[in-house]
Amino acid sequence: MRFPRFFGKKLGHRRTGSQAWASFGDGAFHAVLLAAGLTFGGLLLSGVAVPEWRINHRFLPTTCTILGKGLARRTTAAATATASADGLGSSAWQPCLRVRYRTMTSDVENWSRPPRRTLTSDREQALAGLKAWRLGDSVPGWYDPDDETTVVLERGYSWWMWLLTLLLPGALVSFGGMGLARAIQRWGKSQERCAVPSRYSEILDPLATGPRHAIDHPGV
What we know:
By secondary structure, the chain is an alpha+beta fold. It has 6 helices and 7 strands, in the order ββαβαββαββααα.
């Protein structure tokens, strides 16, 4: 088994780097970018895009009666990592409603799933969000047919998250994929061969030939 040489041909008093190893390093770098884009995009799709799409397209409508109000406490990842010895840490709050609603099989009583945008670190602000709801009111809701205990009172899309899902992972996938394809194309080719312009160079760069070389039109 022969490995690529670290050095290529000798030019003057120095050696050129091996084109094979250069292509390998370039390909590995862009492969990492491609993998990062696919991984990040998959996490955003599974954690945000797919759940929101299911709520807006798969959840079934129902009528909910408000039975109670409360706050859901969420401990952030940063708080978990930096929690002090007494167990206290930063928390985020979300207003939640306990509702009763009718599904296709039975009556269900459970806490609603709050929208992501209502998450706040200010407990007083979260409490203020509960004032708009009154006990005993009937409000529209939507429940998950695959898990009838899951119910939401609001639907919609987090467009900024969808935009982030498309732009950032898309840029990593595009840049990494094109770089990896270029590295594979150049694998095993000499520097002289890579330096030869393609047959499309004149189309892509119409000013490559200056006007001084044009017939009957000397350059200025």
